[in-house]
Amino acid sequence: MKIFKNNLIIFFVCLFHISVFSQSDLILKSKIVDINKQPLAFTSISIMSKSIGTISNEEGRFYLKLTKENLNDTITISTLGFKSFKIKVQDFINQEIEVVTLEEDMVSLDEVIIQNPSSYVKSALKKLKKTTYSKGHQLNILYRRFSNENNISRFLVEHYVKVYDRGPTSREFGPIEIVKARKSNDYRFAKKKQKFHAIKMIAKQNPLRIRINPRNYRWKIVDDTSYDGEDVTVLEGKVKNKKNKWIKLYIGSDTKNIYRLEKSDLNAVYIYKKDKDGTMVLSYHNREYVFWEEVSSQTKRLLKLKEDKIKLSYRHEAIVLGIETDRKKIRVSENIRLGKDIGDYNLKYDSEFWKFVSLPPDSKFYKESSKQLENIYGIPIETQFKRVKN
Q1: What pLDDT digit, counting tens, does each position of 241-286 carry?
Q2: Sign of the C-alpha dihedral computed for residues 189, 195, 199 and 204 taken in this order
């Protein structure tokens, strides 16, 4: 049986802005949308030969800091369901690009349908060490956590960290170094703390690292898409006897690359992209931990709660901004401590660093959450960053 998709022409608009803030540095600001002008969130934007890049935010906008040394390098913009768009940095600047046309490939699921879905997953997991970068490397990550109470943001912490990663065969990250930090004032009533830096959980809770057993799931094909010209099959596995627990894998039909992973636990998402060698590396991760905590009668009256407990949540987001694979250039000095919450690290706020690092532009969620933090006492978020002891 063959399944074909009608030829479809898809556009995305790259409305870009270039600004120069020194003699050698450039900032590219763009927005990525589809034919219907819908934003393409979490799209990878990278210079693969240099292992640097960023992702677009929920509104499809991105911000990428480069230097004039990158003018002859090629930018690759890629995401599931669309052919990758590649262009030299200099051409990106010179050409007034507004629309890029992408044609969706014809999709055939012959081989996938013949195979047992479980065997298909096993094949991808078996090749994991070859399809992902499995040698020691350094990830440069922007890690942020919003702490919410009754769906209102009351504390924000952002860390720029260097992580030593031994690859998918390791269940944990190696050394982790907090390089820069900033945080809002802590407005929480229930100041629940984690006994570890939350970035550790990216590895500890990743099903690919904890050796999932495909036999424990009931697998079925739920969708198909594409990535960089390759057909991608989407398989969902539900835990036997636990229908509400599931994982979803986006697997390349030819390479068996795993491009994306989703799971029911914490509604977590892991997005991977190709490195300069064609192997997969982590690009983006998010998750949300929701729980309840008992509060005092005074807090209950103050917040006008009907119950003796308050709904709390941690919204985590990790954006990989760069990868270093040259062992001579890897520099990670462990400075996180066991038993210490992400909000308890005190580093001096460096406003210039945060101004020019290649972070995605503030998303609607980020803006709304920051506004909530500002409205509590009428203090701008930037002022809080400067005044709070980091």
Answers
A1: 887 999 999 999 999 999 999 999 999 999 999 988 889 999 999 9
A2: negative
Question: Which residue's structure tokens are 């978020």?
Answer: 381
Please give the full DSSP string across 104-152, using - where no structure is assigned.
PPP---HHHHHS-HHHHHHHHHHTHHHHB--S-EEEEEEEEEEEEETTE
Query: Helix, strand, coil proportions of the chain in percent (round to 5)?
Result: 20, 40, 40
Q: Is 376 helix (H, G, I), strand (E, B) or coil?
A: helix
80 CB neighbour count, 10 Å cutoff: 18
137: burial class by Cβ within 10 Å (0-12, 13-18, 19+)?
A: buried
CB 233 within 8 A of CB 201: no
Instruction: Tell me the helices (H) and strands (E) count for the chain, helix number first.
Output: 9, 19
Distance, CA of 163 to CA of 319 (rounded, Å): 12
Which backbone phi and psi does 190 adopt, to 5 degrees? -105, 95
Distances from the Cα of 273 to the Cαs of 58, 147, 279, in angstroms?
Answer: 18, 29, 8
Give the model confidence (pLDDT) of 73-117 as tens digits. Answer: 998 888 888 878 888 888 877 776 554 445 555 555 555 555 689
For residues 364 and 370, what is the distance between their CA atoms, to the nearest angstrom?
10
Kindly tell me the burial class for residue 136, based on how many C-beta atoms sit within 10 Å of its own C-beta (0-12, 13-18, 19 or more): middle
Q: Please, is 134 exposed, middle or buried when counting C-beta atoms within 10 Å of its C-beta (0-12, 13-18, 19+)?
A: middle
- Determine contact, residues 257/248, Cβ cutoff 8 Å: no
C-alpha 13/C-alpha 99 separation (Å) is 5
